């Protein structure tokens, strides 16, 4: 069962996705460039969100290329270049074009899809011979790291993780297991790395957490995972300019179809 827990209808959801795009897009595009994706390329951006990566891919492949921006809810996929096709797609139910793309990329998507290996198999089936599958997922195992250490943030991360994973939702620790599932696809040249950032209270990593908490704090309180004073303590911490946040690590795994 797959259940996307974040609500596109929430007033802050587009801003949350945009904050994460600003945080993670530069490394994503460096990874894509390193694979040799360029003019004339055909790319699938799965779980396209606000379309920031699809837009960057369009710039890389140019007028002779093609980008398919697929998302189960494409409401934020506006203002994209003409060579980008926007399509509403449920990765676990709808058929993707088979063996058509030089690059299939998904970021912060597969952790929402169950079973994960089946989601990866479906994405891999869309990769053309000699093309690449590039998948990126975070792991919340180290997501409570702030300086100075703060129990309020540890408690909030634990509460959000428990709520997010309920009933087949977001798998918050999937990043470290992504490589194992990718190796099971039988592709070539499979490799993995991870990276992160450290931020002050005004930066996008904190903003993404703030918008996430704003979306789920009523549910956290309703489930008794935190008390109102604990939630208030977290908000004070997140606005404290002296607090530094180490982001969740992003695991990036790439593999090539022979």
Question: What string, H for helix and E for strand, traces the elements in order?
Answer: HEHEEEHEEHHEEHHEE
- Strand order in the sheet with the most strands: 3-2-1-4-5-10-7
How many angstroms does the end-to-end distance come to?
31 Å
CATH superfamily annotation: Vaccinia Virus protein VP39
> What's the average pLDDT?
93
Number of strands: 10
Give the fraction of residues assigned to helices.
25-40%
- Please state the structural category: alpha/beta
| Biggest sheet layout | 7 strands, mixed
Query: Could you name the CATH topology?
Result: Rossmann fold
Shape: globular
Which residues sit in consecutive blocks of at least 5 with pLDDT less than 50?
A: none
CATH architecture: 3-Layer(aba) Sandwich
Give a description of the structure.
- The chain is α/β, with parallel strands linked by helices and 258 residues long.
- Helix content is 35%, strand content 22%.
- The strands form two sheets. The protein has a seven-stranded mixed beta sheet with strand order 3-2-1-4-5-10-7. A three-stranded antiparallel beta sheet has the order 6-9-8, covered by helices on one side.
- It has a single domain (13-256), classed as Rossmann fold.
- The two termini are 31 Å apart.
- The mean pLDDT is 93.
- The protein has seven helices and ten strands.
- The longest helix is centred in the first third of the chain and has 22 residues, at 13-34.
- Strand 4 (101-107), helix 3 and strand 5 (127-138) form a beta-alpha-beta unit.
- Helix 1 (13-34) runs parallel beside helix 2 and helix 4 packs across helix 6.
């Amino acid at each position: 069962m797959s259940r996307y827990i974040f609500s596109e209808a929430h007033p802050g959801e587009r801003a949350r996705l945009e904050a994460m795009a600003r945080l993670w897009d530069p490394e994503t595009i460096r990874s894509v460039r390193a694979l040799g994706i360029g003019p004339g390329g055909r790319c699938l951006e799965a779980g396209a969100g606000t379309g920031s990566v699809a837009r960057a891919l369009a710039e890389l492949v140019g007028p002779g290329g093609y980008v398919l921006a697929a998302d189960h809810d494409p409401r934020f996929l506006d203002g994209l270049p003409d060579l980008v096709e926007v399509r509403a797609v449920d990765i676990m139910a709808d058929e993707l074009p088979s063996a058509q793309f030089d690059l299939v990329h998904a970021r912060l998507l597969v952790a929402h899809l169950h079973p994960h290996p089946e989601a990866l198999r479906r994405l891999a089936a869309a990769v053309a011979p000699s093309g690449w599958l590039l998948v990126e997922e975070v792991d919340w195992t180290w997501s409570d790291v702030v300086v100075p250490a703060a129990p309020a943030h540890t408690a909030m991360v634990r509460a959000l993780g428990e709520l997010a994973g309920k009933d087949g939702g977001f798998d918050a620790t999937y990043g470290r297991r992504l490589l194992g599932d990718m190796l099971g696809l039988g592709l070539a040249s499979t490799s993995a790395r991870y990276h992160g950032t450290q931020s002050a209270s005004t930066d996008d990593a904190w903003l993404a957490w703030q918008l996430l908490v704003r979306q789920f704090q009523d549910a956290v309180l309703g489930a008794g995972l935190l008390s109102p004073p604990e939630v208030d303590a977290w908000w004070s911490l997140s606005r404290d300019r002296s607090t530094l946040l180490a982001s969740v690590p992003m695991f990036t795994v790439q593999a090539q179809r022979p």
